Amino acid sequence: MKTAGTLHSGRASFQRKAWADAYAKLSSTTQGTPLDLADLERLATAAYLVGKDTESHDLWRHTHHDALAAGDITRAARCAFWLGFVLLMSGEKARGGAWIARARRLLEEEGLDCVEAGYVMVPDALQSLGRGDHAQAYAIFSQVGESGRRFGDPNLLAISCLGRGQSLIEAGRIQEGTTLLDEAMVAMEAGELSPLAAGIIYCGVIETCQQIFDLRRAQEWTAALTQWCESQPDLVPYRGRCLVHRAEIMQLHGAWLEAMDEAEKACHQLCLRPGEAATGYAFYLCAELHRLRGEYTKAKQAYDQASRWGYTLHPGLALLRLAQGQVAVAEAAIRRIVDEATDRTTRTGILPAYIEIMLSVGDVPAARAGADELSRIAATLDAPLLWALTTGAQGAILLAEDEPLAALEPLRQASRIWEKLEAPYELARIRILIGLACHRLGDDDATRMEFDAAHWNLQHLGAAAELSRLETLSPLDASDNRHHLTRREIQVLRLIASGKTNKAIAIELSLSERTIDRHVSNILAKLNMPSRAAAAAYAGHHNLF
């Protein structure tokens, strides 16, 4: 009676998604009366959802063999499929593929027309999508959906919607694809899906939205994923990815301390599950937050951790080197990764950093080429975030080409978009460029307002790296800045006057010698002086020390 009561209680816990209690009670009953096949499936699922992967794998395998012995071929195939699929998701491709193949063989040998035949097609569709054959992927996912309709399986229908949506997006049919993503999420919100399918749908939809820079959808579905995870305190597999998605959105909206907290929690959660693809990205996100805060040593340590988990470190590491004054290193790295990147998603993520670094080294034509490519991608995806990046890049390039008046229109357009997206860091960076344009046009009041607004935002964020750069760009009071020297240039000039070489100045200011060379050239040009000695004498005469 005690065993029967515990079993009933375990089933009830499974029904209300209390996974840890369900696992404890269902597993305890195995010590008495053996569980039937349906309860073994519940136990295998509960084990997976509380993070007991090895136990879950053993239970799926055990249930598979028991189902074979009982002549229940469809259940045996279903267990083999889910065992294979979770192994594939954890990176064990050989083992996972073997179990999927076994499930397919069982169904083919028996000639069974059942919903499980639809499930075993899913890995084939994913393989087609992975190798870029979106037409083939769409065709297979359509067959998956037809199977789901015939057998009334909402999980398979939702997986089909997700897969077809991803296939259409890869084919450039963005609006049709996102409509299908939304359809998959409707099934999720209606509570029609099993926990295994629900996690797959949530993560797949959010990651696809991020790839096409559809920030609105990514934010909405991340909020829904967060609520879903919080409703199941025992849930382990999808919680780490949820934290990563939350951290990304917090970073964009300027909640950097909260974003760091979420990213560090994600690292801890994901490290507990070997094979989790998101682990490297979680460490990369930590590194990016450290970089933005000017914590360069911590950033490098986090980048190293991301690398150990197999994550590509660029463009973040290249931007770190740029911030550290290692301009040549940053330039070499970003040129290499742009040359190597072939797919649209990767190139879109790299191009903004490429443009920034090319402008830093004075290669305006390369920056222009990068901005033109980014503009073409933005026209295809039509995402506000991409338009903000594109128009901001165009404005920065016009400024580098000494066209401050022409630069103002795209810069202000970018400013409006970033403000609407509630992205204070990106908005501050654009306002710095607007300030520089106004300064070159002689509008000192507008310059001061733009720089003050940018300074307030960056200080509020704790963006030490960009604050430091702002200090080097900010114009001085009119009485001290008749020659339009930046604060960094004044600093360099004072060191020149003290007799230091460019190499010594570079060491003192933690910048590259190439950067100091450029500052010296700018100083001589602005002061119209023929030599360093003449510039130093001029500085002494005009009290610039």
TrEMBL record:
Segments forming domain HTH luxR-type: 478-543
Pfam families referenced in this protein's UniProt entry, alphabetically: GerE (PF00196)
This protein's UniProt keywords: DNA-binding, Transcription, Transcription regulation
GO biological process assignments: regulation of DNA-templated transcription
InterPro entries for this protein: Sig_transdc_resp-reg_C-effctor (IPR016032), TPR-like_helical_dom_sf (IPR011990), Tscrpt_reg_LuxR_C (IPR000792), WH-like_DNA-bd_sf (IPR036388)
Record PROSITE patterns: HTH_LUXR_1 (PS00622), HTH_LUXR_2 (PS50043)
Single GO MF descriptor: DNA binding
Name this polypeptide is given: HTH luxR-type domain-containing protein
